[in-house]
Sequence to fold (71 residues):
Amino acid sequence: LDVDTVNAAMKDGHAGVREHAARAAEPLVAEDAAVLTAMAALANDPEPRVRYQAAFSIGYATAPARTEALA
Fold:
């Protein structure tokens, strides 16, 4: 997967796609700020399963911004 594909999937209209995109993006979130930004938006998703997965996936980030994303 590449950053553009993952970022697009995290904005998909279907909650299941967003949920799985967050999980698939875990290897990328530590190395790309754009992925962390897109994932942080999922922390406020209207679907609880997406928010739940986003919280776990944000944990893979190494940037200090991960704390802000979960606040």
